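notes to self, project folder thing:

trying the whole complex as one job this time. last attempt i did each chain seperately and stitching them together was a nightmare. two parts in total, labels are on each line so i dont mix them up again. if this works i'll redo the older ones the same way
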Amino acid sequence: MDRQAQIEFLLDHYENPRNRGKIEDPDITMSWGNPGCGDVLTLYLKIDEAERIVDISFEGEGCTVSQASASILTEKLQGQPLAYAENLTPDDITNWVGREITFSRPRCALLALDTLKIALKEYRRPHPRPLFPSEGEGSKG
Amino acid sequence: MSYARPDVLVETSWVAEHLNDPSVRIVESDEDVLLYEQGHIPGAVKIDWFTELQHPSKRDFVTKEEFERLMSEKGISNDTVVVFYGDKHNWYAAYTFWLFRYFGHDDKKLKIMNGGRKKWLDEGRPLSKEVPSFPKTVYHAKDPDPAIRAFRDEVFASLNRSDRVLIDVRSPKEYTGELIHMPEYPQEGAQRGGHIPGAFNIPWAQAVNPDDSTFKPAEELRRLYESYGITPEKEIIAYCRIGERSSHTWFVLTYLLGYPKVKNYDGSWTEWGNLVNVPIKKGPEP
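result (full assembly):
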C-alpha cells in the first residue's frame, strides 16, 4: 500500500471506527493511555471457554493514529484464539498500520497493542495458560 | 499590560481575510499527524514534524540546506509572512515557529494564529481537503541560531546557578518521576523518571485558556512565571520530553513576555533521563 492509500485506510478507520463502544459483560476491561499526548483507550474483551475472543471493542479519545489503530486491532482480533492475541508483536501493528506512520508516532500506533497486552496479562492471573494446548490449537504434527 | 510583541499573534478573523494573500503562507503543524488530511484552512500547507523537519538518521533537525529545500517546496520565500496554527493549543505550531527562528526567518514575518485549529473550527470557519501547491521559491536560510537552543552541556553547567532557571513544562506526574514512557519505545523513552534538579514544574498549557486555546493575557502570564522567580534578567532554559512542549513555553516567554534570554533544550528528558551519571531529582520539589 502506498503512503496515500495507507493514510486513506487509517482515516477510514478513524472516521468509521469498527467495534467502537462498550460490550455487555466483558471478561476483560482495561484502560491505558499515553502521558503527555492525551491518548486514552479502553478495551473490552469477551473470551469463551475455548479461549477464543468472541467479542472485542474499544472506547477512547486521542489522535487519529491511536484511535484508528484500535479500530484495526479489534477488527483483526474478532473470533481469534487468545493465543493469537498474546503472540502479537509491534511488527504486526506496523504491518497493519503502516511502517512510516508507526515510525513517526510509535506510542500512538502501539497504544492499542499495549493496552491489549496489559489486559491479557491481567486476564491470565486467574486463568493461567494451559500447559498443553487443547485439541486443534497445537501443532499439526 | 500588553504582550511584548503583539504582532506575533494574528486572530482567526485576520487569517480568514488573508486566505488568498500571496505574501502570506498559512502552515498547519499538528501533534496528530493525520489531522491536516481530514481538512485544513483553505490554502494551508502542512509541515510534518516527523517526516519533514527531523534529520533522517541522527537525532537532530534537518540541515540548513534541507530546510531551504523544504521552504522552496512549500512556496515560502524569505519575504513570506508565515502564519502557523495547529492542534492542542498550537503546541506543534510553536515548535515549528521555533525552528523557523532557529534557521533565521525574520521574526517580524512569523506569526501564530491565536487559538489554533480548535478556535478556527469552533467558529465554524471552513476547512478544505484540497492540498495546495505553490511555485517553488529560492530560500536562503541562516546558520542555526545558538541563542535559542540549549544542549546538554549547557544544561549541566546551569545546575546550581542562581542566574539561570530551568523550567520543566511536562505534566506533574512526569516531573515527579511517577510516569516515564514505556520501555518498549526506546526512541521516545527514558531509562529514569524525574526531573533535572532545580527545575520548576510549570506545565506548558498553563499559558493558554483551555476553552478556546488562546494565550492568556500578558499580566496573568507574567504573574505565573514571576511566582517562581522567573524574571526577565535571568537566562532561562525550558525542556519537556523531546522539546516540543517546551518550544511553546519558549514562545510565550520570548514573544509574549519579552524575556530576552530563553532557550529550548530539545534534548529534554529523553536525553537527560538516559544520560549516565547526571543528577536526577524525584518528587514534587525542584
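what i see at first glance: Residues 71 and 101 of chain A are 15 Å apart (CA to CA).
need to look closer tmrw
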